């Protein structure tokens, strides 16, 4: 396990809500985590768990209205990004903190060439001339493994394959050597071979540049291959926060266990994959207690009445579950006595 000493990003009790005619959606509801230099943190969970909203919140890209960051802090190198002006944030985005978006075809401008879009970021943040910025853009395309980069730099996004467009996004994100890279489902819609190439590319470039990475994904296989630590999200909250190896060898939260059990394995005899019963609750109508309780086979009365705090259960593990609290033991003992 690699050791990481210097903290570069610290998120404390972050809350991002959406105010609509249907009501208030607590998309991100009080999450906290840290990121150290050179580290890869995976954020995993089902669709609708709040992963992408978390990543957009970090760069303050939430559309307002209806969205708003209502509380918490995002400390980048000790300074709270929530106190920065929009002008200050523009100097940080793409320069010190970059993001690879989920779908490159909707993130790249269709009327500008790949090289022009990378060069624009370089000119904006590094104050280089047009020719110098263009040459660096071509060098970045070469660095991310695009063949004939001089030719590809002049092509527009629709002329490139999905894998090439994703590489262009990576080149753009890393062009200014950011200290933090947020990758939101960077291999979505790519075939398995290209997925492996993209993930290997991110790992290689991270090592070369010393960049800290936040990897947003629903794929635990990707987490196993790339991450140092993992935050498992469910219904806007972090329910388990631990080392990546602990997730696979000693998972704690029933939701994490359910995700792992739903992974296909070569030794499986059953025809169908194991699934987690039920669905993610509506963000407009969250349960009173633990949000996972309606789907949890271990739920007790206390789970339906109150939300559990994130409990420290080991040197590097925190879990939000009543099973790891004294209250759970008391309720379990009481039910055993009456034969429940």
TrEMBL record:
PROSITE patterns: ABC_TRANSPORTER_1, ABC_TRANSPORTER_2. The keyword Lipid metabolism does not apply. One of its GO terms (molecular function) is ATP binding. It is found in: Cell membrane. Residues 9-260 form the ABC transporter domain. CDD domains: ABC_NikE_OppD_transporters. SUPFAM superfamilies: P-loop containing nucleoside triphosphate hydrolases. Gene3D superfamilies: P-loop containing nucleotide triphosphate hydrolases (3.40.50.300). Signal peptide: none annotated. It is a peripheral membrane protein. Keywords: ATP-binding, Cell membrane, Membrane, Nucleotide-binding, Transport. It comes from the Bacteria. InterPro entries: AAA+_ATPase, ABC_Ni/Peptide_Import, ABC_transporter-like_ATP-bd, ABC_transporter-like_CS, Oligopep_ABC_C, P-loop_NTPase. SMART domains: AAA. GO terms for biological process: peptide transport. GO terms for cellular component: plasma membrane. PANTHER family: DIPEPTIDE TRANSPORT ATP-BINDING PROTEIN DPPD (PTHR43297:SF2), OLIGOPEPTIDE TRANSPORT ATP-BINDING PROTEIN APPD (PTHR43297). Belongs to the ABC transporter superfamily. This is ABC transporter ATP-binding protein. It comes from Peribacillus butanolivorans. The lineage of its organism: Bacteria, Bacillati, Bacillota, Bacilli, Bacillales.
């Amino acid at each position: 396990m690699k050791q990481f000493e210097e903290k570069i990003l610290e998120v404390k009790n972050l809350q991002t809500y959406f105010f609509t005619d249907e009501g208030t959606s607590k998309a991100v509801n009080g999450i906290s985590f840290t990121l150290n230099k050179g580290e890869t943190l995976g954020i995993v969970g089902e669709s609708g768990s709040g992963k992408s909203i978390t990543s957009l919140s970090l760069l303050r890209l939430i559309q307002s209205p209806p969205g708003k960051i209502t509380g918490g802090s995002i400390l980048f190198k000790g300074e709270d990004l929530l106190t920065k002006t929009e002008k200050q944030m523009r100097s940080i985005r793409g320069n010190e903190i970059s993001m690879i978006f989920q779908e490159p075809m909707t993130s790249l401008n269709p009327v500008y060439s790949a090289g022009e879009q990378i060069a624009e970021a370089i000119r904006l943040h590094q104050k280089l001339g047009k020719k110098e910025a263009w040459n660096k853009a071509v060098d970045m395309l070469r660095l991310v493994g695009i063949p004939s980069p001089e030719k590809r730099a002049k092509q527009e996004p629709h002329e490139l394959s999905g894998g090439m467009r994703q590489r262009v996004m990576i080149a753009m994100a890393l062009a200014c050597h950011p200290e933090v890279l947020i990758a939101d489902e960077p291999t979505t819609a790519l075939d398995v071979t290209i997925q492996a190439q993209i993930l290997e590319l991110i790992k290689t470039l991270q090592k070369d540049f010393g960049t800290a990475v936040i990897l947003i994904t629903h794929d635990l296989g990707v987490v196993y291959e790339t991450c140092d630590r993992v935050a498992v999200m469910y219904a806007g909250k972090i329910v388990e926060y631990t080392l990546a190896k602990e997730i696979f060898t000693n998972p704690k939260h029933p939701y994490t266990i359910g995700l792992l059990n739903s992974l296909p394995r070569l030794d499986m005899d059953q025809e169908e994959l194991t699934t987690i019963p039920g669905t993610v609750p509506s963000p407009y109508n969250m349960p009173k207690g633990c949000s996972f309780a309606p789907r949890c086979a271990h739920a007790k009365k206390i789970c339906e009445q109150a939300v559990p705090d994130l409990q420290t259960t080991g040197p590097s593990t925190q879990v939000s579950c009543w099973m790891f609290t004294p209250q759970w033991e008391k309720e379990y003992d009481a039910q055993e006595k009456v034969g429940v």
